């Protein structure tokens, strides 16, 4: 698997993947072509199963707070 060319291309591919989930492969390919993504790159990314893709979504996911698992709350009496 090759690395992304740039952030702008990665954003377009991410939108194409979200479009595939919402509307199907045909709409995803149409969006990607109209966005200027090369047909080879479209085919390469859309042919992969979802499990082989990096995580994508419309909302960012914050990293969990590591402190919460290491600290315990105690009450003073």
Could you describe the 3D structure shown?
With 77 residues, the chain is mainly alpha-helical. It has a domain at 10-50. It is 51% helix and 0% strand. It contains 4 helices and no strands. The protein has helices spanning 7-23, 25-34, 39-46, 67-70. Helix 1 (7-23) packs antiparallel against helix 2 (25-34). The protein is elongated and about 65 Å long. The chain starts with 6 loop residues before the first helix and ends in a 7-residue tail after the last helix. The model has no long low-confidence stretch (mean pLDDT 79).
Q: Unreliable stretches, pLDDT < 50, 5 or more residues?
A: none
| Biggest sheet details | none
Percent helix, as a range, is: 40-55%
Measured by DSSP, the beta-strand proportion falls in under 5%
What is the total tally of β strands? 0
Summarize this, please?
This protein is mostly helical and 77 residues long. The chain is 51% helix and 0% strand. Residues 53-77 are annotated as: Disordered.
